[in-house]
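Entry: Serine/threonine protein kinase
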Amino acid sequence: MEHFIQLTRQLNREIIIETPSPFDPVCPINTPHPWKLIGCGNYAAVFLHPDFPGHVVKVYGREADGLIQEKKVYERLGEHPGYSVCYYTEDRFLILKRIEGITLYDCVHKGVKIPEKVIYDIDEALDYAKKKGLYPVDVHGKNVMISKGRGVIVDVSDFYKQVECRKWTDLRKAYFKFYKKTLYRFPLRIPYFVLNLVRIGYRYYRKLKYNFKNE
């Protein structure tokens, strides 16, 4: 682990991450060899080193104070099959257990069936987090993965925020009311630009509904 920490410190010194919009993922503009960029979120980018396939490094690009909160979230969660594990934190990065699989977002893109069991696995993991005094926030198709046949939540960075979030509730409802009756029975590949339009449309829908509710 010490060798990996040293490699991660070097990555942290060399990496440059841009943050063009608060509503879009961060954008690394360089990835030092031999690291591989495997994902980007609203706050951080995730990298893999080929010599350490069981670990990933999450480097924050904005709201670095959230790193400390994310560390505390993982400490509360402990070891649970519905989540990763945090091994180490320093400066603006975390070293996490790598979860291999496919996100629900990519399942829809590639026409891969999403079993009901995955939905129930996430329900159970969220209930577990609530029992630990956490607040499951920002759980959506890009943050939920199918790994070895079960549902896993791969981003818990917002679980400390005491805010209302309906993303998983709405996704779950869409799964049973629409997906299970259509794309599950007749799998189709949905282009990313279509999925992105749905994502943007959902964001404005929730915003309009919130404004209407508070008028």
